[in-house]
Amino acid sequence: MGNQILLAKRLIKDGTNLWKVMSPNNHHIPWENAVYEIEEQFMKIASCCSRSLSPQDLNLLRRIAGCQEYLTQENFEKLWCWLYPVAFIISRDWINPIWNSTSPKWIEGFITKEEAESSLQGPTGFQEPGTFILRFPTSRSWPHPDAGNLVVSYVGNDYKLHHRLLSMHHVYGSGDNRVDVKPLQDMLLAEPELSRLGRIIRSH
Predict the structure, then answer these.
(1) CA 200 vs CA 9, 103, 175, 190: distances in Å
(2) What are the UniProt keywords, alphabetically (predicted)?
(3) 3-class DSSP state of 146
């Protein structure tokens, strides 16, 4: 609970400050100008220096914000309430290394449930049972208690698609100093229904 209160305070404070920096007059601003500031803040909060946001990640953020060419304060708040909890989770010791890992790429980035499903189905039908993809669900924004948590989408032994929420606070508790837990990737591969990392196949 303490973590949730801390996250809420920081989310509001950092979001208010960032909007003031981007729009001193509180007017809408071009999306293309805003993305640089948003990405810089994301990387700072997430404590990631090696992995920036891809064009696909930024497209998804734009869709979450619900904006076109211009970003209003309302659009920004929608985006921020989704992005901040994600960045906060990525900054934790037990997930930061797998976010920064690009070979293999454990967390594909910001993708929709539909993109995950179409990739697991693939052009020639379902991939092998046990193939999975890690994603941040686009439907979970602050103050939802699941905001920032990962979902594992996978092909089951029944050749059906399954989606399972990984509650990070439940798995790891609220602290970073747990030395008795396995890395997240080892915990995932130890699950009987998860055996191999999938790849995102984009249609464009």
Answers:
(1) 35, 14, 31, 22
(2) SH2 domain
(3) coil
